[in-house]
Design brief:
By secondary structure, the protein is an alpha+beta fold. The chain has six helices and eleven strands. Helix 1 crosses helix 3 and helix 5 crosses helix 6.
């Protein structure tokens, strides 16, 4: 079985390197963004996940259709999938100027967020962290965002919900490992940074990371 594959890069670089066409539903969603950067990030992430899946499957991105449907309201958002490969797991993330995509068998989830130095948002910490995690994070904002993206990746895997983030205790993981491959309760984490961006992908088996620009990045423990 092939290892899960992660693609990531800055939005402008992704748009320069990958082509393709969104579905009518995706284009409609993109047009509703009021900020141009948000629209570009959305488009780049949705194109990137197709290219990630195409490389994983050994096919062309143009033959893959990304679909999303919310289990709660039925609207076209929520966990994504490929119409042509419904059993393949896919995940995507975007934060201003940066996008990620993950593809693999089993469950996959990826998330990325900007994190600046300075004190942590105590409201966010109270929402997301267990007492043990809070002790590790302290008032360090980057450590808080590291734990946040890990839990968002678990949400995208379908193992957690935003109102139950404190039910997952990740205090056994280092709070700021930089570029690393980690394990937690049978799950594999691949983590990296790009400037102020902190990113985490969680898969069922060790994943490969490709940073756009042609370099395949092997994370280290």
């Amino acid at each position: 079985m092939r290892a899960p594959l992660i693609f990531a890069g800055h939005t402008d670089e992704v748009l320069d390197m990958v082509g393709g066409t969104l579905t009518e539903v995706e284009r409609s969603r993109a047009e509703r963004f009021t900020r141009e950067q948000d629209r570009l990030d959305f488009v780049a992430a949705h194109l990137l996940v197709r290219h990630c899946a195409a490389e994983f499957l050994g096919t062309r991105a143009c033959v893959l259709t990304l679909v999303q449907r919310c289990d709660q309201c039925g609207k076209p958002h929520g966990r994504p999938s490929l119409a042509e490969e419904p059993d393949l797991s896919v995940s995507l993330a975007h934060t201003p100027g940066y996008v990620c995509a993950a593809v693999g068998h089993g469950r996959v989830g990826v998330d990325a967020e900007h994190a600046t130095g300075g004190p942590a948002d105590q409201g966010l910490a109270a929402l997301a962290l267990t007492p043990a995690e809070a002790a590790l994070v302290g008032r360090d904002n980057r450590k808080l965002i590291r734990q946040w993206v890990r839990k968002e990746a678990l949400v995208k895997r379908g193992e957690l919900t935003l109102d139950r983030l404190r039910e997952a205790d990740l205090s056994s993981l280092p709070p700021d490992p930089g570029h690393a491959t980690l394990e937690w309760q049978g799950r594999h984490l691949l983590e990296w940074t790009a400037g102020t961006v902190i990113a985490s992908a969680i898969t069922d088996s060790p994943a490969r990371l490709r940073l756009l620009g042609g370099r395949t990045y092997a994370a280290r423990a």
